[in-house]
């Protein structure tokens, strides 16, 4: 549980795996993510907004259980305020690839990112994957520093951004 900054009666957020009942709130958070950080994710706000609710619901059902793909959210009891996903790396046994990391601006700097990473790391270890990997757009220094504080190390590998050819991403890793 994390408290929001500046509240007289601190708000609390439970970090947990998504549930099928989260579909509408996850859709709202996904649209916020894309509006706030359009270069960090693999689709545009327009593409996500056009997707039917049934597709969001199916995705949430798929990632709410199982060993290969999971999403975790920060839930203060209303609007979701954070997200992280993890998927078994397609070619590296023992590695979970972290994706779609987001903390809503009001909750940044509260430790919520660490709680989200802790949740995906625990799931990864339970599934016998002892290493975490993520990619960050080169130049996103705020995210880079945040991941360094959580023990991620820059591997030196740079790869093309999957959807924007002019951008590069850097790879970071740490033990789960």
Automatic annotation (TrEMBL):
GO terms for molecular function: acyltransferase activity, transferring groups other than amino-acyl groups. InterPro entries: Acyl_CoA_acyltransferase, Bact_Acetyltransf, GNAT_dom. Residues 13-176 form the N-acetyltransferase domain. CDD domains: NAT_SF (cd04301). SUPFAM superfamilies: Acyl-CoA N-acyltransferases (Nat). It comes from the Bacteria. PANTHER family: AMINOALKYLPHOSPHONATE N-ACETYLTRANSFERASE-RELATED-RELATED. This is GCN5 family acetyltransferase. The lineage of its organism: Bacteria, Bacillati, Actinomycetota, Actinomycetes, Micromonosporales.
